[in-house]
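To: structure subgroup
Subject: Chain for Friday's discussion

All,

I'm putting the inputs and outputs inline so they're searchable in the archive.
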Amino acid sequence: MAGVRALRVAARQRPGLGPAGLRALWGGRSQRLRMCSGASRKEEREVEADRAVPEKEERSEPSLMHPLPRRRSYVPPENLQSCLESHVREVFGPSVPEDWQQAPLQEKRLKHRLLARLATELGHAVPNSQLHRMRCAGDVLGFYCTPVRDSTKIDELTAAELPPNLKIIWQQ
């Protein structure tokens, strides 16, 4: 009873609330229904779902609003290994092991410095989703040795030989 009295006092102190505001303050209709009728929460949800405004029941076929993003093409340069070795030696200084490909990239500051320099020089950056795979300079070399074609998966599927009962038609 003390809780109800406190709510009534709060409602009187806020005269600008309309009926909807008062319902919200009192906990809505479902709160009163539950207190009076002892309805369970599951029944409440069903009642609220019945009152909800229905969305469009008919949906058209799913379509791609925008084409899939294109990847920028990348062709590894001829002198990639020497370029990468010089950058590793510049960034790590005298602490580079004799086999530079085994240089660990555990220190985040050095890893960032190396990858940022390579991204600006080669025009191809390591995506965020693959940063955790770059544990040593050899991993970076492996990433930059891989060529990337400028195409999407849809383009690749369209160009591939497909069975006669499967056709891909891209409408723009």
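Points worth raising on Friday:
Confidence is low (pLDDT under 50) at residues 30-35.
DSSP finds eight helices and no strands in the chain.

D.
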